[in-house]
Amino acid sequence: VQLVESGGGLVQAGGSLRLSCAASSSIFRINAMSWVRQAPGKGPEWVAHTSRSGLSKYYNDLVKGRFTISRDNTKNTLTLQMTNLKPEDTAVYHCSTGRTGLADSDVWGQGTQVTVSS
User: Fold this and answer.
1) For burial by CB atoms within 10 Å, which of 6, 80, 97, 112 has the most?
2) What is the C-alpha to C-alpha distance for residues 84 and 60, in angstroms, rounded to an integer?
């Protein structure tokens, strides 16, 4: 198993959650990393990505200003800090290799469920 997410749960609108992804060193150190989410009945949606160094970070406009992506290259972990959560953020969140997580070659973890109640 190369990517394992944790930290999902049920939270009220306006609340916060912190997702983590533990990665195998073999794929973590050579890749940009992303978070991707998939809501019921919808296709996958790129949320954010960080460069290999962690110095560059990019966000979907839907989450910009509310979510923060970060990585710890010494611990092979990827994190997504989510604040001011909205019901429309409800989805399964996957960490992924790559800049979008949507390429055929990108590798996903099994995902963690985030549910935001109104």
Assistant:
1) 80
2) 15
Q: Quote the CA–CA distance of 83 and 76 in Å, as a whole number.
A: 23
| 8 Å CB contact between 93 and 35 | yes
Q: Which residues pair with 86 in a beta bridge?
A: none
The label of the residue with tokens 């995902």 reads: 111
Residue 87 DSSP SS3: helix
Q: Give the number of other Cβ atoms within 10 Å of residue 73's Cβ.
A: 13
Short-list 108, 115, 103, 104, CA closest to 17: 115
**Token pair in block for residue 76:** 């092979």
Q: Report d(CA 80, CA 48) in Å as an integer.
A: 9
pLDDT tens per residue across span 23-56: 999 888 888 999 999 999 999 999 999 999 999 9
- For residue 3, give the amino acid letter: L
- Cβ-in-10-Å burial (0-12, 13-18, 19+) of 21 comes to buried
Q: What DSSP character marks residue 38? A: E
